[in-house]
Amino acid sequence: MNFGTTEIILVVAVLFLLFGASRLPQLAKSLGQSRKAFKEGMREAEEDERAEQAKLAAKAEPPKISPVNDEGLSEK
Questions:
Q1: 69 lies in a domain?
Q2: Cα(43)–Cα(37) distance, rounded to whole angstroms?
Q3: Domain extent for 46
């Protein structure tokens, strides 16, 4: 969804009317901090998931191959 200049100006004007010019910097700061915390949480979750997958991959044993006896196959 792309916002044009007109839409952005309209949204800012509505925000000025609703909250006043003194509260907008506080709201912007709070929004920026929330966004930063969200991104950090997502990054930590991705790192935890990668670490868990690596841990499971390290624990996985390679498949064991049993020797095949040709004599047993021809008797059946």
A1: no
A2: 10
A3: 25-51
- Is residue 26 left, alpha or beta, with left meaning phi > 0 and alpha meaning psi from -120 to 50? alpha
Q: Which residues of 47-57 are buried (b: 16+ CB within 10 A; e: fewer)?
A: eeeeeeeeeee
Per the structure, the count of domains in the chain is 1
**pTM (predicted TM-score):** 0.52
User: Residue type at 60?
Assistant: A
Quick one: pLDDT band at residue 32, thresholds 50, 70, 90?
A: very high
Per the domain annotation, does 72 fall within a domain? Answer: no
**Residue 30, in any domain of the structure:** yes
CA–CA gap between residue 42 and residue 65 (Å, rounded): 41
- On whether residue 38 sits in a domain, the answer given is yes
pLDDT for residue 72? 59
Using only C-alpha atoms, the chain has a radius of gyration, in whole angstroms, of 30
